[in-house]
Design brief:
Length: about 325
């Protein structure tokens, strides 16, 4: 089979898996759910010099191993890459790294590896998910040439910034030359531009720029991620945005007003920085409310899986299911 044929088969297989998988309010593809639905053995281990592996035994027993030493977005892409090897009928593959360029991979990339890369990119960043996030946030084609918006898109898709650049090439938003230039952007600098000094406590942590457009979505985030929620108070009418239903795990780190408009009747902008003190599934709820009569003008409600990357052993979801059965 030619390399082109292998790539096209990977695109088709990814489209089939995506179509068979419910998305609901998720902004990212549920790769753990797709693997579990196919009863594929999956383990996470602190692998030495490997990102992941697809293993076959006697052409019958098949399984996937992914390292615990990488962050959540790269774990997800590696898992999708290994699933691609499996579904495309490849033999055992020990992957020291993977490629994020998908069908745009260099010609030197081995055909089966390029196919697995393509499968991962097409599954985790298909045009459908990309366009959904872009439409929700008003990210036009021109705006998706801006590193900050690409970074926020990557968070919602659950992939790395680099992988998002190449997904935009596949979707004809960027050229290869533009992606090469943009992927050199320092993600660390993008984070720092969004967060107050000293508020990023973990180098792996991401900074989410959230607005009303994120309401009623389900986000998959890291356990130490910072959420910068931008709100517009209608103070002249007595309405202010407030964090509600906050529990002991929810911490307001800071609050700033970067673009106050002092014109009479104008809405004042604020950014409220929120972090969760413990991993878990959280609900971030803000209400635009009149404090004295509890009248609510608008509401932001976002569900966040803040467990972060998978740890040693079975996938977190599998462990929970086993414990429920034992109980």
């Amino acid at each position: 089979m030619t390399k082109r044929a292998e790539i096209l088969r990977a695109v088709s297989e990814a489209a089939t898996v995506f179509a068979d998988s419910p998305s609901g309010a998720r902004t990212s593809f549920d790769i753990i759910g797709a693997v579990a639905a196919r009863n594929i053995p999956l383990l996470f281990r602190p692998l030495d010099k490997l990102w992941g592996a697809f293993i076959t035994v006697n052409d019958e027993e098949r399984g996937i191993i992914v390292t615990t030493k990488l962050g959540l977005p790269v774990q997800r892409f590696t898992l999708a890459h290994e699933l691609g090897h499996l579904l495309l009928g490849h033999q055992t593959s020990l992957d020291k790294t993977i490629g994020f360029a998908g069908r745009n991979a260099p010609t030197s990339r081995p055909p089966q590896e390029a196919a697995a890369d393509t499968f991962a990119s097409e599954l985790l960043a298909p045009k459908r998910l990309l366009r959904a996030s872009a439409k929700r946030h008003g990210w036009t084609r021109d705006k998706l040439h801006q590193p900050g918006n690409i970074y926020q898109l990557s968070l919602r898709l659950g992939i790395s910034y680099q992988a998002a650049c190449w997904a935009l090439v596949t979707s004809d938003v960027l050229t290869r030359q533009q992606a090469d230039r943009l992927q050199a952007t320092s993600v660390k600098d993008l984070k720092r531009a969004l967060a107050p000094t000293g508020s990023i406590t973990n180098s792996w942590a991401d900074v989410w720029a959230l607005t009303e457009a994120d309401s009623e979505t389900f986000l998959e985030a890291g356990s130490d991620d910072l959420f910068a929620v931008r709100v517009q108070d209608h103070a002249s009418a007595g309405y202010v945005w407030r964090l509600v239903d906050a529990n002991a795990e929810t911490e307001i780190v800071d609050e700033r007003a970067p673009d106050l408009d002092h014109a009479y009747g104008a809405r004042s902008g604020r950014v409220v920085y929120v972090r969760f003190r413990a991993p878990g599934v959280h609900q971030l709820v803000f209400e635009h409310i009149r404090p004295w009569n509890r009248a609510v003008l608008a509401r932001i409600e976002i569900d966040i899986d803040g467990h972060g990357k998978e740890r040693d052993g079975w996938a977190r979801r599998t462990k929970c299911e086993v414990l429920e059965q034992v109980a």
